[in-house]
Specification:
52% of the residues are buried. The protein folds into three domains: 179 residues, NAD(P)-binding Rossmann-like Domain (Rossmann fold, 3-Layer(aba) Sandwich), CATH 3.40.50; 86 residues, N-(1-d-carboxylethyl)-l-norvaline Dehydrogenase, domain 2, CATH 1.10.1040.50; 101 residues, 3-Layer(aba) Sandwich (Rossmann fold), CATH 3.40.50.720. 42% of the residues lie in helices and 12% in strands. It has an eight-stranded mixed sheet with strand order 3-2-1-4-5-6-7-8, with helices on both faces. A six-stranded mixed sheet has the order 10-9-11-12-13-14, sandwiched between helices. The protein is α/β, with parallel strands linked by helices. The chain binds nicotinamide-adenine-dinucleotide. The site of nicotinamide-adenine-dinucleotide (NAD) has 23 residues, from helix 1 and helix 4.
């Protein structure tokens, strides 16, 4: 029996009138569908309908919606007083508390009322669709429709088929998501689906960078925004979502992938959660929201220095580009040859720290500074010292970089700087999602762009940076740390070796 959700009179029941359920119900009603909303808590439905009405009033005030259209939405969106009211629903969307037992109880109770061909879609973020369905009399009627918060504003919906879902379930839910104006992507029933899985690179690696004293949260955020073009830094994002929520997702994905090191949660974040430094909602997180923003001390105070007469740059990845940049700013730069006559030697390593590059190239560590040329970043430079870099050499490098008109952040030694590490991890986790067949390569990129608001999806990002260069960063990080969390996926390694796009299917 093929599932049919495209009949014109499709009637939708949304169970759970919290943050997600009310938004999902609004989206359905705005798409012209008769929709009912149910919640187990007294007063919850009325609160939700009031909130939806206020939200729509805001749209009317901005001229995005007519008063008649608002009235139509509110007329199509009605309260549901008992589960029996869902009897004629063709689709039930569940958005109740994230608890397997409670969801299974609800599904069993619902099944008593539903028609044989009615579909139940769960909005779960962290449970398995298959596992929820296993508690049902007819598991083939259960699928996943994962919306993002807030549902009216977020375009993406992940569609998930459970292992026992009807074979026509995924296509039917994809068509439904399009019908209500969303962009669906199809994901397999795996921990975190695509978006919450792909998000396990940015925050955790940023937390490790700060834990290792390489840069401050503000410096990491500034670099990711200005150098790498992200709309939000990882710490701004942690504060917005809440450290408790993010930490719980980190723990869940790590546990559900059976302690995969790539997804290791942050011990530092767990202490912050325990201490109530949750972010915006508690007024204090990585930033203080109780007072006007104030400048914080840099990790490395660089003494002001006049521009050096000339600099020496290692003849490696990005060296010539950096020389062109400095020459255009009036600073003569020598690429390769003898470094001896210069105030500062600049190295541009991929997946290597300043210490390692200085020693490998037989440079004087005291006169050596590393500059991150991974992304040919236009908005901000990174100057990285090693433990022996002399203050005047660091100052000279910073002055030379600043002469290009681009601000500079000075950081402590790190295999992969800040930006290299974060971008390489994002690409590697994206490659792992592709390797595990969680979703098609193009869908992985779409999901990350729309669901996480990154400037590019992870595979497109890897293609832009060059798969072989991303691999060099990861291999360098793994060689330096012997930490398996940095091991590159076979998906990435193969495509880097073949010189093809990371979106290339097998
Ligand atoms: N908040 C998010 O960012 C987000 C994003 C995507 C998916 N989700 C998922 O959506 C679901 C709901 O999340 P939320 O943030 O809206 O939660 P919420 O706490 O805001 O709302 C849950 C609602 O469900 C009601 N409820 C609890 N048990 C019920 C039952 N047995 N029957 C009927 N109603 C019941 C509660 O009274 C509450 O109003 C969860 O599965 C969550 O994982 C949340």
């Amino acid at each position: 029996m093929a599932i049919n959700l495209d009949r014109p009179d499709l009637f939708v029941a949304v169970i759970g009138a919290g943050a997600m359920g009310r938004g999902i119900a609004q989206v359905c009603a705005q798409a012209g569908l008769q929709t009912v909303l149910y919640d187990a808590r007294d007063g919850a439905i009325a609160e939700a309908l009031t909130a939806v009405g206020k939200g729509l009033d805001g749209q009317v005030a901005k001229g995005r919606l007519s008063a008649e259209d608002k009235a139509g939405v509110m007329q199509r969106l009605r309260p549901m007083t008992s589960l029996a009211d869902a009897a004629s629903a063709g689709l039930v969307i569940e958005a109740i508390v994230e608890d397997l037992g409670v969801k299974r109880d609800l599904f069993r109770a619902l099944e008593k009322h539903l028609a044989a061909d009615a579909v139940i879609a769960t909005n779960t973020s962290s449970l398995s669709v298959t596992e929820i369905a296993a508690g049902c009399e007819r598991p083939q009627r259960v699928g996943g429709l994962h919306f993002f918060n807030p549902p009216p504003a977020m375009k993406l919906v992940e569609v998930i088929g459970g292992l026992r879902s009807d074979p026509t379930m995924v296509d039917a839910l994809v068509a439904f998501a399009r019908r209500i104006g969303k962009q669906p992507i199809v994901a397999t029933d795996t921990p975190g689906f695509v978006v919450n899985h792909a998000g396990r690179a940015y925050g955790p690696e940023a937390l490790r960078i700060v834990a290792q004293g390489i840069a401050s949260p503000r410096e990491v955020d500034t670099l990711m925004k200005e150098a790498a073009g992200f709309r939000m830094g990882p710490f701004e994002l942690l504060d917005l979502i809440g450290a408790d929520i993010t930490h719980a997702v980190m723990e869940s994905i790590f546990a559900r992938y059976y302690d995969e090191p790539m997804y290791q949660p942050s011990a530092q974040l767990s202490v912050r959660v325990a201490g109530g430094l949750l972010g915006r909602k508690t007024g204090q997180g990585f930033y203080d929201y109780t007072e006007a923003p104030k400048a914080s001390a840099p990790t490395i105070a660089v003494a002001p220095q006049t521009k050096p007469a000339s600099v020496w740059i290692a003849d490696e990845d990005g060296g010539n580009d950096l020389a062109l940049l400095l020459n255009a700013a009036g600073i003569p730069a020598t690429v390769g040859g003898s470094p001896d006559a210069h105030a500062v030697n600049i190295v541009t390593p991929l997946g290597e720290d300043c210490t390692g590059a200085a020693l490998r190239l037989k440079l004087d560590p005291a006169r050596t500074v590393a500059v991150d040329m991974f992304g040919r970043f236009k908005g901000r430079h990174t100057a990285m010292k090693n433990p022996l870099t002399a203050p005047d050499a660091l100052g000279a490098a910073v002055a030379a970089l600043a002469a290009t008109g681009t601000p500079v952040t000075a950081i402590n030694d790190s295999t992969g700087f800040v930006v290299q590490r974060l971008l390489a991890m994002i690409v590697n986790v994206g490659s792992r999602i592709a390797e595990l067949r969680v979703a098609a390569p193009a869908d992985i990129d779409t999901a990350v762009e729309l669901g996480l608001n990154y400037p590019r999806g992870p595979l497109a990002l890897g293609d832009m940076l060059g798969p072989a260069r991303v691999l060099a960063v990861l291999d360098g990080m793994q060689a330096a740390t012997h930490d398996p969390k940095y091991r590159a996926t076979a998906w990435l390694r193969r495509r880097a070796a073949l010189g093809v796009s990371l979106r290339t299917p097998d």
